[in-house]
Amino acid sequence: MAADEGSGSGSAPPSLQDLTIDNITPNTIKINSQCKNQRLKYVMERLVTHIHDFARETRISTEEWMAGLNFLVQAGQISSDVRHEFILLSDVLGLSLLVDDINHPKPANTTEGSVLGPFHTHDAPTLENGANMSSDPQGEPMVCICNVKDTNGKPIEGIKIDIWETDSTGHYDVQHSDRNEPTERCVMLSDANGDFWFKCILPVSYPIPHDGPIGKLLEKLGRHPWRPAHLHFMFEKEGYDHLITALYMRGDPYEASDAVFGVKKSLIVEPQRIDAATAKKYGVPENSWVLKHDFVLTTDQETADLRDKLATEALAKLGLNLKLVDHLPVPDLD
Ligand SMILES: [Fe+2]
Description:
Blueprint: H1 24-32, H2 38-58, H3 62-78, H4 85-92, H5 95-103, E1 141-150, E2 160-164, E3 185-189, E4 195-201, E5 206-207, H6 213-220, E6 226-227, E7 230-236, E8 243-249, E9 268-269, E10 272-273, H7 276-282, E11 289-297, H8 300-318, E12 322-325, E13 328-331
Parallel strand pairs: 1-11, 8-9
Antiparallel strand pairs: 1-4, 2-3, 2-7, 5-6, 7-8, 10-11, 12-13
Helix pairs in contact: 1-2
């Protein structure tokens, strides 16, 4: 039996001999097609197709290929419990943004998502409304007054909100080697009116960690590593689409050149100088900033319906004969 010259279809395993530039792809797909999991089989078919085409289209040299593999090894070696270099890689390649937009499409007038980034942790303290999540005396004080509601305008009570930001030097707590406890991060719950409010510091712009392989890659590409000043939010409650987002401070020099492509115009906000009455009400100094923002969340069902609709349209446009199983495309063999 000869190596398969065709599309990789057929039930008999191929003979994996005398494979060439032209027939390695269908034969790799064919040997993988023994996989019983239809989704995994399809994902691997597309991965092999694109990665082989990439090699053929670039006529990649052995040295370049080895440099690529070594780059991945370095990304693994510099990663740790508190440093995830592969998230950074995904971020700077625009893949994180793409995956989020595919999985969490938002109807108009709801809060858009943004990149998670590598600095979320699971040890943030749960704080009462009105608490201060920052212990940095050098930061400019700010109070955030927020509300969260559904697409019908109904307040969402008791939603868990993870919030995190850098200190005034532009570093997350996990970037300090002497970190003893979480700082500049907290978990809050919205009240019966969907309100939550907290004290923090005015976010500052910061470079993503660029002392590792991703930093070197950016340098070679002539790109800067900076992110515009922002405050991260993550909303979780059963029945609602898991929302990972951030608010970006208007006027930041990197507003339109975020190294990880996270900025959306609907997420740009403008903190104001606080008035005396509001400062007194929230117990913050009179030179504080105040940021007011209302979040609008979709339900799981609303997001799933929109995701399926957009997936069906996108696959039809690509001319692929696919169906959705558990919201994910697999070949339609019926
Ligand atoms: Fe960040």
